Amino acid sequence: MELIDSHCHLERFYRQGELDAVLARAAEAGVGRLIAIGTGKDDWPLYQQLAAEHPGRIYWAAGLHPSDVGADWEEQVEMLPQYWKNGPRPVAVGEIGLDRFRLPGNAEEAAAVMVWQDKAFRRQLQLAKELDMPVVVHSRHAFEASLAVIDECGFPWERVVFHCFVDGAGPMRMLNERGGRGSFTGIVTYKNAPEVREACRGQGLDRLMVETDAPYLAPVPHRGKPCEPFMVRDTAAFIAGELGVSPEELAAIATANTEAFFNL
């Protein structure tokens, strides 16, 4: 049974000298491929390096995370195209989007950050169009605003994934009706997340992708521990139960969906 962790962050494991062990545990669990998701100029070079060192195992995406957007956002975003010129190219632009949860306490500063986030999101959607790439969207407390930006930019919805989807069945319908999709983390296994399970059942198998968002959001039975890519197997097995299919069938479908979306 093969699975792809469609969204993880490997920088911490690398800096702590743990990456080889993390990759070994993933491979042992059948998670042979990972997509490392960039968040800013500090991790983009590392993920390109890791993709070069682990061809066919580590893929990567490059984007400016909304929580990393500041006054210099334009300078960072304009650095992105260079990563498509040499070395292992990113398989997506991301993660990009809007985050209305982590904002400065000062109202004036928060308003400025919201404007920067909006502009950075729009510019990166334009860049993804130019590069013919899918996008990985981070949307926290900003679902309808994120939808509006993507609609207004005319970005093709079939190339949009809202990662770590937690917004419930209604928003999932809005996303799916447009042609977009959501991917699911270990949150779907938490007792206090029935709305995430509803959204997962609502979307079904056709567009399903699974992820860890490691090192965050470990699924049950690992909750409370640092999350690792191997744990996507537990999330996938749980979702299989929710959707009434075998873990093997779900893994095959999720893998095929991920390969198609990211053109792996």
TrEMBL record:
Q: Which residues bind a divalent metal cation 1?
A: H7, H9, E95, D213
InterPro entries xref list: DNase_TatD-rel_CS, Metal_Hydrolase, TatD-like, TatD/YcfH-like
UniProt binding sites for a divalent metal cation 2: H138, H163
Q: What cellular-component terms does GO give this entry?
A: cytosol
The terms under GO molecular function for this entry are: DNA nuclease activity; hydrolase activity, acting on ester bonds; metal ion binding
Q: Does the keyword Cell membrane apply?
A: no
Matches recorded under Gene3D superfamilies? Metal-dependent hydrolases (3.20.20.140)
Q: Which UniProt keywords apply?
A: Hydrolase, Metal-binding
What Pfam families does the annotation carry?
A: TatD_DNase
Similarity remark: Belongs to the metallo-dependent hydrolases superfamily. TatD-type hydrolase family.
Q: What is this protein called?
A: TatD family hydrolase
